[in-house]
UniProtKB/TrEMBL annotation:
InterPro entries documented for this protein: Ion_trans_dom, K_chnl_BK_asu, K_chnl_Slo-like, NAD(P)-bd_dom_sf, RCK_N, Slowpoke-like_C
Transmembrane segments: 81-103, 174-192, 212-230, 295-316, 331-350, 362-380
Protein's UniProt name: Calcium-activated potassium channel subunit alpha-1
Keywords recorded for this protein, A-Z: Calcium, Cell membrane, Ion channel, Ion transport, Magnesium, Membrane, Metal-binding, Potassium, Potassium channel, Potassium transport, Transmembrane, Transmembrane helix, Transport, Voltage-gated channel
Chain intervals with Gly residues compositional bias: 1-24
Role of this protein: Potassium channel activated by both membrane depolarization or increase in cytosolic Ca(2+) that mediates export of K(+).
Topology within the bilayer: Multi-pass membrane protein
Subcellular location: Cell membrane
Presence of the UniProt keyword DNA-binding in the record: no
Gene: Kcnma1
Cellular component GO terms, alphabetical: external side of plasma membrane; monoatomic ion channel complex; postsynaptic membrane
Catalytic reaction annotation: K(+)(in) = K(+)(out)
Pfam families referenced in this protein's UniProt entry, alphabetically: BK_channel_a, Ion_trans, Slo-like_RCK, Slowpoke_C
Compositionally skewed regions (Basic and acidic residues) per UniProt: 1219-1234
Organism: Heterocephalus glaber (Naked mole rat)
Length: 1234
């Protein structure tokens, strides 16, 4: 910048307002003229006035020092006073520092002197004390009391000041926040004043900003006093950054009031207060996480350093160097200095703005070292923290009229995709539910892409359910349910269950009323959920135990091979895949598209028996109903609803009964609700059954009973005489007394005893037999009409009650025996070979002493259900490590017919010892699967064992032992009769010569490993599990198929109850509570109530080769078989197990079978088909083996069937003679493996 003009003498070397010719004001060219006029009276001479005037209006003059106005009594010579402002700060700082140091020195000297004098006085006191005889102490000196009082007063003031500034109280927090806010306000005033010259004359009474700044600094002074009083170390306090800021900002304000001039000076140091910004936010509970605190700290330090350095450059560049008489200054705004510091720190240095003064350049040299280091370290860390901040850290906003669920736990791409695929399946009704995922780890790119594809119904938030704040973010209190997913592939199942239990505890603690559905890996860990006070299964809380259901599915396959595949497909949502070619995949996929649904039955079904409604739904509505939700009429059990699977013809449908259907989508099931006999009776196309306009008034009791009776006897209501006039009158009388009551027919039998005592039934024994009973069966007895099928046992059960023998557990659901030591059930290889096992179940188990427990009790319990008679129980032989089985034995020692062969499933000698070629099923399990990181090797043991068995060869000579194998037949059919032997639970060939024909089911962890089980299939490795041949044939099972149960249970909590009823053999919440107490089944004496629990349905397989259904096996319709089995034996058919190559005419067909679920009515049957059916409990199977008269067929000889056909050994007809009870008991004992 050029120097100003010369004075009156024209001396160009004059500086400031001082020239050789006189005194005057040197002004900058950027100052307006109206600020530069001077009072003429203030001139001392005319020459001075002339000189001043000429200097004011000099156009080239650009170096003003101080602008003045007429009203400000400022120095007319324009002399700078910056030194006065700076001196006030320096004197305050160094003066205080000197006083503190002087005080410390004097205190130290005083302490030294007092210490020496104190020792002398102490010695004198000891001497004087020893000379006193009475031992009394001298009174305390009055000066010492005064000092103690003074110290106490000072301490109180110090503590009070410390509380005021500590932010531990509300007053302290308000004070701290107020000081910070006022500091920012003072900084803003500095920003405003920075547009003015560095030093200017201002009137305190007229300058509003100066008044505000003065008020702020008075407050800062008071706060400084509090801090000084509260400080423990005055010296360190004096040298603190905040104290230095006060020294160089507060005193100059008072000086400016006194001098009526302002100097920007070091007021920019107020920017250093920004360093405390994170502390203020923490006091206000705004910052709570370490990342946010660190981010705000870095930003505040960076910004405060940047602004402070810019203020210093602004000061020295606009003032100039003192040794240059401030002549080398340049006009820079504050924000230009901010820009200069940023390009300097970033080492860009454009050069458009730069420092000209020596002080500025010297500062830039040192600043660029520290600034560059700070920029290079702080900026990347700030960017990283901003980039790593929770992208999914918001809060869920509930949508009015739309429910939402929270899904947490094991959130991965696989688990989420499987869940969404089933939850949002198109076969469900419109799913108006939003899914909120909560997980503490942000999703990867693949999972994030999955969320984006379902962005209309899915949201993800990062957090933990163990944190109440995160639960509040996802609005758990208004959620419809919370679903917790488990890691099925974890190495420690107990630890995973413990984590999920803790999640349940946290959620229930936050909101006890929330419905929770959680996955559990181990059955014994379910007991811990019962310890949670707010856990209530009656309110919808459910625990899906994967081990329990997995082993239950496998156990049911031991009773009916392929059932595990059928059930898994029923409870999973699968889209229909149409195949034109006539292959086995076509029929399999048609069945796969069926799912399980629930719907309330129309009032048109009220009063009809279950088989009647089931037949009507199948024939007319094209629906398969397998169960209903039953509400007992007994007052003590009325509040509890039970699910009855194929309950039989004694139970009548009540108003508002919920039915369980197998159908392809939810729309089809609506037919059962919309059906109206008046409107839809003549409709043949089920798609035309829509909601009609009938009001559907409730029928009277008489009409319901008459309609049910007429439907059963096959007559019209006009011709039927099932109910006499007397009965009709009794009903009418009661109807007037109890109008519009929805009492079913079976309930009326209890209310009106005249029905069975005074009015004999018109049904003939043969008609009754066709309608679902057999001779001497309680289901068809004309004298027994049970109002509750689960409370009154059959007569044969009552006769067999023995108060001294415990045959069943305390609930009556399972066979039970006294605990046995494991040594008593261990077989050696030679003992096993001499036992000649046949028709048994071989369980090959891989595990050792360190393996996680599988929970073999869940495999054994369905095979020991009490709805089997004792002689029907299949012997179970475990082949595996004795160390592992000892750990499992505590839960198995109460089950009969269990043996152990120590060895390895890979040893063919052990497999031959247990006659694996004569077994009804071989189960391959492994407890070591989750201990291997490589997913391809997780199933290596199971795959090797399966291939080892399939490659074995056997001698045909031992095939004759198959005759000892006992199967399951419909009620009344003789298992020992060759005429009826085709009706078996598991039919087998007369002999097996190769291991390929041995029925095997293998458990897999990794779905893709299914390709290694069958070497002759052409399954692609990327094929979904349910589309592979081993799964379709029922020879492979993976726990991943159970993922769909989470969404199925959410939409209908009865589904899980139905599944557990089907696959667990009758496990109930009461039984789980009992096992939670003792970890074992408790034996109980037989009572009518416990024996009544045996009367429940079970799954079996029906053969069509021979027997009562042989006429339908060759070209017959499945619908005819369905109706005949339902009417004749109360058996409910629901699928077919067919040979894979049954549709081909090949000379050597394959022995593999596949599952067909719920085939249509017109589906053509073949003789080799096995039919899945739900069979009633046979009360007489344990006493009488007499066969039905209409089902005894003579079989003189049976042709030799190929290895692909489940043929029956041919024997001559024998006359079946009833045996006495003693002979039957003797025979039973001979058959049982003790």
């Amino acid at each position: 910048m050029a120097n100003g003009g010369d004075g009156s003498g024209g001396d160009s070397s004059s500086s400031g307002g001082d020239g050789s010719g006189g005194s005057g004001l040197r002004m900058s060219s950027n100052i307006h003229a109206n600020h530069l006029s001077l009072d003429a009276s203030s001139s001392s001479s005319s020459s001075s006035s002339s000189s001043s005037s000429s200097s004011v209006h000099e156009p080239k003059m650009d170096a003003l020092i101080i602008p003045v106005t007429m009203e400000v009594p400022c120095d007319s010579r324009g002399q700078r006073m910056w030194w006065a402002f700076l001196a006030s700060s320096m004197v305050t700082f160094f003066g205080g520092l000197f006083i503190i140091l002087l005080w410390r020195t004097l205190k130290y000297l005083w302490t030294v002197c007092c210490h020496c004098g104190g020792k002398t006085k102490e010695a004198q006191k000891i001497n004087n004390g020893s000379s006193q005889a009475d031992g009394t102490l001298k009174p305390v000196d009055e000066k010492e009391e005064a000092v103690a009082a003074e110290v106490g007063w000072m301490t109180s003031v110090k503590d009070w000041a410390g509380v005021m500034i500590s932010a531990q109280t509300l007053t302290g927090r308000v004070l701290v926040v107020l000081v910070f806010a006022l500091s920012i306000g003072a900084l803003v005033i500095y920003f405003i004043d920075s547009s003015n010259p560095i030093e200017s004359c201002q009137n305190f009474y007229k300058d509003f900003t100066l008044q505000i700044d003065m008020a702020f600094n008075v407050f800062f002074l008071l706060y400084f006093g509090l801090r000084f009083i509260a400080a423990n170390d005055k010296l360190w306090f004096w040298l603190e950054v905040n104290s230095v800021v006060d020294f160089f900002t507060v005193p100059p304000v008072f000086v400016s009031v006194y001098l009526n001039r302002s100097w920007l000076g070091l007021r920019f140091l107020r920017a250093l207060r920004l360093i405390q910004f994170s502390e203020i936010l923490q006091f206000l509970n705004i910052l709570k996480t370490s990342n946010s605190i660190k981010l705000v700290n870095l930003l505040s330090i960076f910004i405060s350093t940047w602004l402070t350095a810019a203020g210093f450059i602004h000061l020295v560049e606009n003032s100039g160097d003192p040794w240059e008489n401030f002549q080398n200054n340049q006009a820079l705004t504050y924000w230009e200095c901010v820009y200069l510091l940023m390009v300097t720190m970033s080492t860009v240095g454009y050069g458009d703005v730069y420092a000209k003064t020596t002080l500025g350049r010297l500062f830039m040299v040192f600043f660029i070292l520290g600034g560059l280091a700070m920029f290079a370290s702080y900026v990347p860390e700030i960017i990283e923290l901003i980039g790593n901040r929770k992208k999914y850290g918001g809060s869920y906003s509930a949508v009015s009229g739309r429910k939402h669920i929270v899904v947490c736990g094991h959130i991965t791409l696989e688990s989420v995709s499987n869940f969404l695929k089933d939850f949002l399946h198109k076969d469900r009704d419109d799913v108006n539910v939003e899914i909120v995922f909560l997980h503490n780890i942000s999703p990867n790119l693949e999972l994030e892409a999955l969320f984006k594809r379902h962005f209309t119904q899915v949201e993800f938030y990062q957090g933990s359910v163990l944190n109440p704040h995160d639960l509040a973010r996802v609005k758990i209190e208004s959620a419809d349910a919370c679903l917790i997913l488990a890691n099925k592939y974890c190495a420690d199942p107990d630890a995973e269950d413990a984590s999920n239990i803790m999640r349940v505890i946290s959620i229930k603690n936050y909101h006890p009323k929330i419905r929770i559905i959680t996955q559990m890996l181990q059955y014994h860990n379910k007991a811990h959920l019962l310890n949670i006070p707010s856990w209530n299964w009656k309110e919808g809380d459910d625990a899906i135990c994967l081990a329990e259901l997995k082993l239950g599915f496998i156990a049911q396959s031991c009773l009916a091979q392929g059932l595990s595949t059928m059930l898994a497909n029923l409870f999973s949502m699968r889209s229909f895949i149409k195949i034109e070619e006539d292959t086995w995949q076509k029929y399999y996929l048609e069945g796969v598209s069926n799912e399980m649904y629930t719907e309330y039955l129309s009032s048109a079904f009220v009063g009809l028996s279950f088989p009647t409604v089931c037949e009507l739904c199948f024939v007319k509505l094209k629906l398969l109903m397998i169960a209903i939700e039953y509400k007992s009429a007994n007052r003590e059990s009325r509040s509890r609803k039970r699910i009855l699977i194929n309950p039989g013809n004694h139970l009548k449908i009540q108003e508002g009964t919920l039915g369980f259907f197998i159908a392809s989508d939810a729309k089809e099931v609506k037919r059962a609700f919309f059906y109206c006999k008046a409107c839809h009776d003549d409709i043949t196309d089920p798609k035309r059954i829509k909601k009609c306009g009938c009001k559907r008034p409730k029928m009277s009791i008489y009409k319901r009973m008459r309609r049910a009776c007429c439907f059963d006897c096959g007559r019209s209501e006009r011709d039927c005489s099932c109910m006499s006039g007397r009965v009709r009158g009794n009903v009418d009388t009661l109807e007037r007394a109890f109008p519009l009551s929805s009492v079913s027919v079976n309930d009326c039998s209890t209310s009106f005893p005249a029905f069975e005592d005074e009015q004999p039934s018109t049904l003939s024994p043969k008609k009754k037999q066709r309608n679902g009973g057999m001779r001497n069966s309680p289901n068809s007895s004309p004298k027994l009409m049970r109002h509750d099928p689960l409370l009154i046992p059959g007569n044969d059960q009552i006769d067999n009650m023995d108060s001294n023998v415990k045959k069943y557990d305390s609930t009556g659901m399972f066979h039970w025996c006294a605990p046995k030591e494991i040594e008593k059930v261990i077989l050696t290889r030679s003992e096993a070979a001499m036992t000649v096992l046949s028709g048994h179940v071989v369980v090959c188990i891989f595990g050792d002493v360190s393996s996680a427990l599988i929970g073999l009790r869940n495999l054994v319990m369905p095979l020991r259900a009490s709805n089997f008679h004792y002689h029907e129980l299949k012997h179970i032989v475990f082949v595996g490590s004795i160390e592992y089985l000892k750990r499992e034995w505590e839960t198995l020692h109460n089950f009969p017919k269990v043996s152990i062969l120590p060895g390895t499933p890979l040893s063919r000698a052990d497999l031959r010892a247990v006659n694996i070629n004569l077994c009804d099923m071989c189960v391959i399990l492994s407890a070591n699967q989750n201990n291997i990181d490589d997913t391809s090797l997780q199933d290596k043991e199971c795959i090797l064992a399966s291939l080892n068995i399939k490659s074995m060869q056997f001698d045909d000579s031992i095939g004759v032992l198959q005759a000892n194998s006992q199967g399951f037949t419909p009620p009344g059919m003789d298992r020992s009769s060759p005429d009826n032997s085709p009706v078996h639970g598991m039919l087998r060939q007369p002999s097996i010569t190769t291991g390929v024909n041995i029925p095997i089911i293998t458990e897999l962890v990794n779905d893709t490993n299914v390709q290694f089980l069958d070497q002759d299939d052409d399954d692609d490795p990327d094929t979904e599990l349910y589309l592979t041949q081993p799964f379709a044939c029922g020879t492979a099972f993976a726990v991943s198929v159970l993922d769909s149960l989470m969404s199925a249970t959410y939409f209908n909590d009865n589904i899980l109850t139905l599944i557990r009823t089907l696959v667990t053999g009758g496990a109930t919440p009461e039984l789980e509570a009992l096992i939670a107490e003792e970890n074992a089944l408790r034996g109980g004496y037989s009572t009518p109530q416990t024996l009544a629990n045996r009367d429940r349905c079970r799954v079996a397989q029906l053969a069509l080769l021979d027997g009562p259904f042989a006429d339908l096996g060759d070209g017959g319709c499945y619908g005819d078989l369905f109706c005949k089995a339902l009417k004749t034996y109360n058996m409910l058919c629901f699928g077919i197990y067919r040979l894979r190559d049954a549709h081909l005419s090949t000379p050597s067909p394959c022995t593999k079978r596949y599952v067909i679920t719920n085939p249509p009515y017109e589906f053509e049957l073949v003789p080799t088909d096995l039919i899945f059916c739900l069979m009633q409990f046979d009360h007489n199977a344990g006493q009488s083996r007499a066969s039905l008269s209409h089902s005894s067929h003579s079989s003189q000889s049976s042709s030799k069937k190929s290895s692909s056909v489940h043929s029956i050994p041919s024997t001559a007809n024998r006359q079946n003679r009833p045996k006495s009870r003693e002979s039957r008991d003797k025979q039973k004992k001979e058959m049982v493996y003790r």
